């Protein structure tokens, strides 16, 4: 089941259902933004230098995995989180970069509610375990992550 997230009604912990996939949308990468991000945050030659990248094991310029994760985080915030009920995250359990992302690639992403549990220490909150996935325009899986999201519970 796939569900869209646009709603005028707040989405509480109780409204997330295990097995439901939520679309995050798509994002594209340009050579200029790949280089700009990498110069600031991950200045390895295959991210910042097209000539050196062609001679690398990747055979060309590729996006930093952190750049991919940052752009998918933006999709997550814009298209999934309900800012009225989201309470943050204690982190990720797993993050995998499975295939290089190159200039002009477009990634399409979704998140699946994999599990959920009420908080034992904070009854006003629940925890959602989410599996993130992103594919490129060829349908190849390029990134996966297992994340944790804290969400406000419906008021009594």
Give the helix level as a range of percent: 10-25%
List the total number of helices.
Answer: 4
Q: How does the overall form come out from the CA principal axes?
A: elongated
**Biggest pleated sheet:** 5 strands, antiparallel
CATH superfamily of the domain at 13-30 and 62-152, by name, is Hotdog Thioesterase
Briefly, what CATH class of the domain at 13-30 and 62-152? Alpha Beta
Strand order of the largest sheet: 1-3-4-5-2
C-alpha Rg (nearest Å): 18 Å
Span between termini = 28 Å
Class computed from helices, strands and strand pairing: alpha+beta
Q: Could you characterize the architecture of this molecule?
A:
This protein has 156 residues and is an alpha+beta fold. The chain has a domain at 13-30 and 62-152: Thiol Ester Dehydrase, Chain A (Roll), CATH 3.10.129.10. The protein is built from four helices and five strands. Strands 1-3-4-5-2 form a five-stranded antiparallel beta sheet. It is elongated and about 60 Å long. The protein starts with 20 loop residues before the first strand and ends with a strand. The model has no long low-confidence stretch (mean pLDDT 95).
């Amino acid at each position: 089941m796939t569900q869209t997230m646009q709603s005028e009604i707040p989405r509480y912990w109780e409204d997330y259902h295990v097995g439901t996939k939520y679309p995050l949308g798509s994002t594209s990468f340009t050579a200029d933004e790949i280089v700009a991000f990498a110069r600031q945050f991950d200045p390895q030659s295959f991210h910042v230098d097209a000539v050196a990248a062609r001679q690398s094991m990747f055979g060309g310029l590729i996006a930093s995995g952190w750049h991919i994760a940052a752009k998918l985080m933006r999709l997550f915030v814009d298209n999934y989180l309900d800012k009225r009920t989201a309470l943050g995250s204690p982190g990720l359990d797993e993050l995998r970069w499975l295939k290089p992302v190159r200039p002009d690639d477009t990634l399409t992403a979704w998140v699946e509610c994999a599990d959920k549990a009420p908080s034992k220490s904070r009854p006003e909150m629940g925890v959602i375990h989410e599996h993130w996935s992103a594919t490129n325009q060829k349908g190849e899986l390029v990134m996966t992550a297992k994340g944790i999201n804290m969400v406000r519970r419906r008021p009594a």
